[in-house]
From TrEMBL:
Residues 10-25 have a biased composition (Low complexity). It is found in: Nucleus. CDD domains: XPF_nuclease_EME (cd20083). This is Crossover junction endonuclease EME1 isoform X1. It comes from Neodiprion lecontei (Redheaded pine sawfly).
Amino acid sequence: MDNMDVIELSSDSNDSVPSVNTSSSKPPALHILDDDYNFPEVPFASELPAAKKYTDSDSGAIFKSNSDIETELFKKYIGEKSRSKETVNASSKNDKELTRIEKYRKAEEAARIRAEKAAAAARLKSMQPGECMNYMQVILDLGFMNFNFFDTLITELQQYELVYKLKSQIISNSVTWTRSEEKNSEHVTGGIKSVEDNHIIVVWDYTETVKKVASDTFVTSIDNIQTSMPGKVTTLIVYGMENYFRHHRNLKKMQVKNLCLGSFRDGKKRRGSKAFEDLPVISRKQLELCLIEVQLTLNCNSQLIESPHGLGQVIGQYTKAIAEAPFKIHKKQMLQSQLDFYAAGDNKDTVKVDKDGNGLKRLWQQQLCQFNLARLETAEAIISKYPTPSHLMDAYAHCTLSEGMKLLQDIPIRRTAGPITNVRRIGPELSKKLYLMFTSEDGNILLGND
């Protein structure tokens, strides 16, 4: 192969066949100058660098790095899951705490409501007529100890079973009242507090009364009392004036008698006359004018009392009236809130009906007696045929207008028992009124002129 035949080609201008040189020589190196044909050199396999061989340690490092990545990812997942769990636990704890606080608040609210209801029930019980006197206390001024009837007055108050207390007050010789009530506020429930009533009684004996009437300071003194005790309902009690007037009346009679007999002896003086003689002389008319003036101008009631028994009775009556006042006011408000109108005399001619129905017949009889032409025997005659209002209403339901108006007119009425008893009928007038009363739907219709 080394002695290869080399063929030389040459180009001439003529078209002759070129000569072929068949000499044996090495071919010349190719020199290609065109840059478009410059290809990169490709090394042979022998010239390639040796391939990097990985050992077990290197492969372990590779696997270790992958494990680290997985560990980091796992830790990150576990961390996020832990944080999520902690958040859920914190939220659950907050919910439990809020639930516990809400339960505690509801328990406190329920306890407060129960306490308020218990206080209201106790307060309502304390207003009952049978219980209210136990919560009242009478306050007497220390000036009563200077009266000669003080011991008798205390005895009278004890007989009325009144709780009293001696205490110095702004107005001398005055009587006031306090009431024990349950405390009930936003922060405090229970306990007892003392509430002063707005009524006051001022007691003047005959000495003070006569001096004020004679000096024309009677009305001014009452005005000063009301000014110093604003909001108080004042009642004036004048004690012992009748003895004063009796003394001057007897003295005047004695003077007339001595004048007629021609004797000017003063006569035997009675016990206690010295105290009356040292006082100015006033007439009963002057005193009555002063009492009327304070009543009209100052709205001050007055009363003349002549004995310790009478004074103790007045104090006892005032105490009872003041104690029962809240219950009566509460009852009136309840009636006004439930009904558009109510009978003012609700405790007059009333009929008690128990849970067993006892008293219903008496109530039906009382209802019939409200008509002008109906008396007890008339009501009994109607009840003998129609024992209840429903029986009468059923009878009216099966009647025409004319029949209903005449339904009761022929019922006989017996006034007394016996063979010669007069019998009369109910009559058409009362029968018509009863029919209109129980069947009319017009509330403004008039039953009659009677």
